[in-house]
């Protein structure tokens, strides 16, 4: 397990190495074309050192990479502030957001699909403002009103990925406890459940509920997120959230294990139609 920046460096390096190979260049030839020492190209490709977005652009130009989506994604991995995705709006909150959260948002903004298991709270992309504030206030006891306002603003701004063109494809499995846990009071929960009903009807959102009757399941160890990218599966990553940081799993065996776990949870969960009925029922107080 690694923190986001280390994972991003390695993934970026691996993709740049693949692009160089596809261009028919050795690392030495690539270095000569851009005016670098070969060791710099090697360090970038192995992820042992960071790389500036300008250097990534230079390499992509040298390798003849014109795909705008791939260029934007690789610039995001390099930490670019202008690689796309509404010009990285979250940079305006640098004083409020920890680096791990900014890193998570940067991946979310460029992902084509997101699969998530939530066992305690509604996924951030589906939270109402009131619910988001109640969850944030509980997680950051004693936080100032100004900080809570900023963090709620960030949570709501993240939801724009569901309204993008094309939108993020979201598949979420929610433990029934998410629907039953009263966050912020009955009124807040009633509006939050209604929001879930509305979201579940969107064509790019697949929402399933894992009922209490399913008993113990593979997800009891905690929530997780799997980000997928349309250009290449080699950039897919699993994110595990902890109280003070996020950890990233990038090995193929880890991705396979969490993908299989999500698929198993989807099988044991209610169908999207039955899940919608359950959500609607809890919204009605059933």
UniProtKB/TrEMBL annotation:
SUPFAM superfamilies: lambda repressor-like DNA-binding domains (SSF47413)
Stored InterPro entries: Cro/C1-type_HTH, DUF5753, Lambda_DNA-bd_dom_sf
UniProt superkingdom: Bacteria
Domain HTH cro/C1-type: 16-70
Pfam families noted in UniProt: DUF5753, HTH_31
Name this protein carries in UniProt: Helix-turn-helix transcriptional regulator
Protein source organism: Streptomyces thermospinosisporus
């Amino acid at each position: 397990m690694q923190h986001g920046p280390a994972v991003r460096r390695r993934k970026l390096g691996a993709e740049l190495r693949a692009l160089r190979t596809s261009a028919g260049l050795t690392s030495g030839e690539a270095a000569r074309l851009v005016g670098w020492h070969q060791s710099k190209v090697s360090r970038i490709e192995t992820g042992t050192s960071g790389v500036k977005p300008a250097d990534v652009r230079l390499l992509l130009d040298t390798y003849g990479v014109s795909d705008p989506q791939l260029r934007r994604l690789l610039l995001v991995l390099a930490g670019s502030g202008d690689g796309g995705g509404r010009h990285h709006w979250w940079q305006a909150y640098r004083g409020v957001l920890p680096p791990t959260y900014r890193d998570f948002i940067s991946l979310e903004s460029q992902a084509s699909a997101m699969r998530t298991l939530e066992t305690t709270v509604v996924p951030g992309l589906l939270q109402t403002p009131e619910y988001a504030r109640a969850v944030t206030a509980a997680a950051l006891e004693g936080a100032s009103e100004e900080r809570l306002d900023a963090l709620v603003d960030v949570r709501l701004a993240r939801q724009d990925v569901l309204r993008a063109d094309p939108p993020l494809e979201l598949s979420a499995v929610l433990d029934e406890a998410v629907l039953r846990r009263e966050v912020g009071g009955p009124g807040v929960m009633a509006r939050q459940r209604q929001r879930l009903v509305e979201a579940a009807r969107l064509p790019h959102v697949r929402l399933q509920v894992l009922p209490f009757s399913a008993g113990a399941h593979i997800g009891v160890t905690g929530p997780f997120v799997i980000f997928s990218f349309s250009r290449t599966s080699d950039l897919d990553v699993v994110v595990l959230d902890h109280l003070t940081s996020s950890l990233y799993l990038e090995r193929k065996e880890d991705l396979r294990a969490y993908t299989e776990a999500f698929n198993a949870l989807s099988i044991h969960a209610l169908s999207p139609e039955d899940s919608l009925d359950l959500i609607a029922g809890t919204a009605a107080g059933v």
